[in-house]
Amino acid sequence: MSYYRVRAGNSSGIGSYSAVRSSMIINPPTALDATRIFPHSFVANWSTVPNATSYRLDVSSNPNFTSFV
Known about the structure:
This protein is mainly beta. The protein has a domain at 2-46. It has strands at residues 2-4, 9-10, 13-14, 21-23, 31-38, 41-46. The strands form 3 sheets. A two-stranded antiparallel sheet has the order 1-4. Strands 2-3 form a two-stranded antiparallel ribbon. It has a two-stranded antiparallel sheet with strand order 5-6. Strand 5 (31-38) and strand 6 (41-46) form a beta hairpin. It starts with a strand and ends in a 23-residue tail after the last strand.
C-alpha cells in the first residue's frame, strides 16, 4: 500500500497538504545504503520502480521527518 498527499504552489508560496490518500497504483522504492558520504553531502540510492516517471527525495536530520534539510 502506498500513501500520498499533494500540495500546490505558485509565486506566493506553497499551500497546505491535501488529505492523505492510499493507492496500490505504484509500490514505493526500497531505500538502499548511501554511498560517497562526506560531511555535507552523500549519494542517495534506491531501487527502481516499474512505471515510475520521477522520484522525490526527502532529507531530514530527524527520523520522523518533522523538519527537512
